[in-house]
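User: Can you predict the 3D structure for this chain?
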Amino acid sequence: MATERMLQFFRDRRPEGPCLVVDLDVVRDNFLAFAHAMPDTRVYYAVKANPAPEVLRLLVELGSCFDCASVGEIRLVLDAGATADRISFGNTIKKARDIGTAHELGVDLFAVDCVAEVEKVAEYAPGARVFCRILCDGEGAEWPLSRKFGCEPAMAVDVLEAAQRLQLRPYGVSFHVGSQQTNMPAWDLALGQAAAIFRTLAERGIHLRMVNLGGGFPTRYLKDVPAAEAYGASIYSYIRHHFGNRLPETIIEPGRGMVGGAGVIKAEVVLISRKSDDDPVRWVYLDIGKFGGLAETMEEAIRYPITTPRDGDATAPCVLAGPTCDSADVLYEKTPYALPVSLAIGDEVLIEACGAYTTTYSTIGFNGFPPLQSYVI
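Assistant: Here is the predicted structure, written as structure tokens:
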């Protein structure tokens, strides 16, 4: 939610157009909450959520590691002061030359999910550590992931055996239970599958060391979500259940859970209209939409909290849409959003919990609208 520091920034600076403001104090509090809740687990911040240099520098200072999806993100993290041993190249889809560049920069930990990717890593990053991502169904997540990343657990055994044959170091197993995951037993199921892979490979002389628990840790939007401590306690109990006293190294990759609640977008009402004289639903057009950074409203998966200067007045259902000349630029129509009847053209609204996946999803200038401005305080 908007902090007093954010509100003071808007009052003092009065930035033109839609903009995101990120409060580093919230990022710091979130990191410390993860570290306290899971003290035996290393945090690998998912850089894709928000790669602002100020955010990266703070997390470097706090001791975070980093999950990177590209060479570009790796360079950002190195520029922020991290050493290469704190970086995981966590994308399972990598160009061979990018694997080589990452290895030259000192990165030694790579994600894979098929033998073909293992072969690329073996050629361009010889001797590196690899972990294999397995599929999860994502049940319970507000933003379930597709089958784009990961393989069936049985195939993961073959993938990691191939890594051993090619003189890589089979290091572990990873999974992602889906973004905005509030169903904690999802980790139980995935950890059971990971433990089975550990046992099978141990019988074949390959001893894995690490389980990457992925992301999925939620941000509070319109509904309350469990605190980091609840996730930590549940996940630790699942690990003990499946691994007994031979506990693996564990890492987590929070992105949304680290920065989502740290950001607020200021937007302006451009137009309010109806589609017919007797239409009970108003259309409220903002100066930001899917192409300006709110891509996660696709399928209305993420419903952001919105505050207005007229909160407390009577409300009525609205369709929310962005300003572009694209019919897909509609935010909430399937389930209309209740906003004050008194809301007027020119009013400024705050779209809260926008610190993750907004600037990175903003186009560079679709329809001539500038990219989403970002300020870090």
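The chain has two domains: 24-259, 261-376. The CA atoms of residues 96 and 120 lie 6 Å apart.
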